[in-house]
Amino acid sequence: MKQAGSSPCATPEKRNGQSALFLAILIGGLIILIAATIAFLVFTFISSSLGFRAATRAQNVAAAGVDDALIRLIRNKDFASASPYALLLDGSSAAITVLRTQGKATIFSTASVAGYTRGIRAVASVDQATGEVNVVSREQAAF
To answer: Taking the alpha carbons of 73, 78, 81, 86 in that order, is the dihedral positive or negative?
Structure first.
């Protein structure tokens, strides 16, 4: 039963409650949006730094592969490896190929760590008379 003088519209007290609820939902939504943005940025930063570390490790393992091939050339001036041999380093490996042509040795070393592949190509001159090995060039190989 309706009382005389009552209206179907909300009273000022109810309107204040509605605006407070709207404001609370708006502020809560903004807080959730800011938290999600910060979480995304932290995840992206961690992923990129882990990727950088993996790529750097792959580069270092490939460089160690070139150094290993140079040591083998110094010990044996006739060393060649047409099919790749593996060098294991602390859970990572490099595939190294040594190709010989008229007093020169071309060394290809590739390593993959967590999906990041890096390679190094080096050219060394090998004196057949003395066995002296000199590095002519050393560069990162493009993939």
So the answer is: negative
pLDDT score recorded for residue 26 = 94
Report the first-to-last Cα separation within the chain, whole angstroms.
83
- Those residues whose C-beta lies under 8 Å from the C-beta of residue 65, and which sit 6 or more positions away, are 87, 94, 95, 96, 107, 109, 110, 111, 120
* Dihedral class, residue 115 (left if φ above 0, else alpha if ψ from -120 to 50, else beta): left
pTM assigned to the model: 0.69
Domain ranges of the chain: 35-141
The class (CATH top level) of 35-141 is alpha beta
CA atoms of 88 and 68, how far apart (whole Å): 11
